């Protein structure tokens, strides 16, 4: 996308990078809406169907912008005095990106949870398997990304953008038809009603009974297994001592509950429903640590691509690596890292921790945050080296010149970023899925993308402020010539942000209490 915006639509680097970041932010915001729709009434299957159709329309639209000359400006190979895309051309692009973002709102929070619905994800079921669902889900995503940054990017750079965007459009249509054809075989979990309404009901009931005294014995609080059956298929949440003021919602007053009728849930909540809200509140501080991680990484992909474009990318006299394909190394690290994590790391560490998963979700996330800090440090050092070489060869004022430094200098930072994903991204997905109430799992996965959304918007704000206030002469992030910038200063800044974020995460992880769950056994359902 950054290449398409800068090379085909002739947009300045910061403007193009902000469009990419804002799109990522919007595409990460819509999943919360899709999750609420899926968990409340539509179900995951139909949310995926509708989201896929809208996403396909977005792909068709953006492919059209590349095919029709009237929808993009004339080429500008010199990168000097380029005619930028017109307002009409940009509006067409924005419409395409909006359709893509809305479509992703339906698929992102539901695809993984729908796949998990087909498996036994109870604690006993997970421990009985020799493989980790989340690792292999992320592994399959890595294979798709690998195809995108090699085959598709090569076609975009060397054949045409029409084919480069058309192939993913065709691939998405084929994937949709394959998914649809398997419909009779899928296990479809019925939605249990609006989680948002249940949360509000618990809060309202607690406020109404704010003067009530909760019993010392939690078994005296209101419970109704029949009422909660649809939202506790795999297990009932047990009472916890955190957020005790919410327990007042489950204090039963005379006449509020009878065996023959459903109680007024705006006045009386079950322990399970109270614990749903508690579980959700507990995971929010840990989830928030992902926001600044995304903020630090929001523009790194765009900047890495622009760095690669200025470096020596020759593999032979006749072949150059496309700049966007450098992310191949990060993705390969993810793919290989996930296999090594599951087949070597987990069995080895399990000997010492006695944990079937090797390490806890929070430990995995913390290691991922450390890898990302190392990524930023190495990125700053490599950029300093690249710019020094440009200065030594008097290439600073020539944005089209190839700086005589191998593009493979970028491999270490890309690999470190890949290792961060192996630990942090997958660990966070596991954490949100396992620690959220089962009736809110689409919403929990929506939170994963909300962190990306907020982080991307904060990243856009940070980059815009840096570009605005670091001056014209010594701007850290210049519009078109990276050689006169100070990109390494940007990386040092995000390194500091991540260091602070890591300390915050450690404090949250130290204080976190895992949710207690009483699994429903077969005899319970007889």
From TrEMBL:
Gene3D superfamilies: MFS general substrate transporter like domains. It is found in: Membrane. The chain crosses the membrane at residues 45-68, 93-115, 136-155, 161-180, 319-341, 361-382, 447-469, 489-512. The keyword Membrane applies. Keywords: Membrane, Transmembrane, Transmembrane helix. It is a multi-pass membrane protein. GO terms for cellular component: membrane. SUPFAM superfamilies: MFS general substrate transporter. GO terms for molecular function: transmembrane transporter activity. Coiled coil: none annotated. Pfam families: PTR2. Belongs to the major facilitator superfamily. Proton-dependent oligopeptide transporter (POT/PTR) (TC 2.A.17) family. PANTHER family: OLIGOPEPTIDE TRANSPORTER-RELATED. This is Major facilitator superfamily (MFS) profile domain-containing protein. It comes from Populus trichocarpa (Western balsam poplar).
